[in-house]
């Protein structure tokens, strides 16, 4: 009996200690998944472009887009947005749209490269709520099917070189790789990003990927994806916690985003 009480207390204590970590894990990024990643993992996020879901039925795509998945729940005032008055919900929607309009991702890549040659492709991200954004280098601009370009023979030859919003090199993400593992990842989380929909100020980050071109000549595509949040850039949807903020829409809300660059065709020459 006493043992059971002690076990119960221990479980409770573990929960209390573990919960804030868990709560900080998805909004605020996925701090532990320091590995190659694809955008399919972000099931809760809303898609910024219909083209990300072009292989899916139209109705499915509509459900995943910002309007259908995120904004509609705010307009309706469904829980947890029922806490806000109708005018506040309209203000919040305007601010969320401002974050989306401001947030961009681009990918610079050469049009041609010799088979097996070294090259650098650079993703530039602007915006998002912060405190982090996620950048992925991919073979296509498809939310459910894009994968690391390594699968098509591009070798990511070193740790992605991140320039943080302070303009300085940032190795926070790749420093988290376990000892002995290579750091040549296609996915990076950039720290120190801060978006403010009211002030209209946002962070910038650059991720440069050192690559070696495939050995087989032909046309290949590369794309970059940006994973970011919107609600924590809006005062009406920022829930303060000790040490971190949460989006009002919650852990499983649709306030995250998946945004792709257009696919860039790179011709690998013999
Ligand atoms: C359970 C739902 C859920 C899943 C699954 C999820 N996310 Fe998110 N994520 C969110 C929410 C909600 C936000 C938006 C926070 C906001 O609006 O401010 C977010 C935001 C982010 C951000 C930006 C940080 C922030 O708080 O603004 C990154 C980076 C991110 N997610 C990466 C990922 C990756 C990578 C995966 C897959 C491994 C993933 N997410 C899966 C819910 C999820």
Describe the protein in words.
- The chain has 270 residues and is an alpha+beta fold.
- The chain has a single domain (2-269), classed as Immunoglobulin-like (Sandwich).
- 21% of the residues lie in helices and 29% in strands.
- It has helices at residues 2-23, 58-64, 66-76, 86-102, and strands spanning 46-47, 104-108, 112-114, 118-126, 132-138, 155-156, 161-163, 169-170, 187-191, 204-212, 218-229, 238-241, 244-247, 256-260, 264-269.
- The chain is globular, with a radius of gyration of 20 Å.
- Mean pLDDT is 92; it is low at 1-23.
Count of DSSP strands: 15
Count of the separate structural domains:
1
Ions and ligands? heme C
CATH architecture: Sandwich
Secondary structural class? alpha+beta
Flag low-confidence runs: 1-23
Work out the helix count: 4
Strand content: 25-35%
User: Helical percent range?
Assistant: 10-25%
What would the principal axes of the Cα set say about the shape? globular
C-alpha Rg, in Å?
A: 20 Å
Quickly name the level 1 CATH class: Mainly Beta
- How is the biggest beta sheet arranged? 7 strands, mixed
- CATH topology grouping: Immunoglobulin-like
| N-to-C SSE string, H for helix and E for strand | HEHHHEEEEEEEEEEEEEE
Mean pLDDT: 92
Distance between the termini: 75 Å
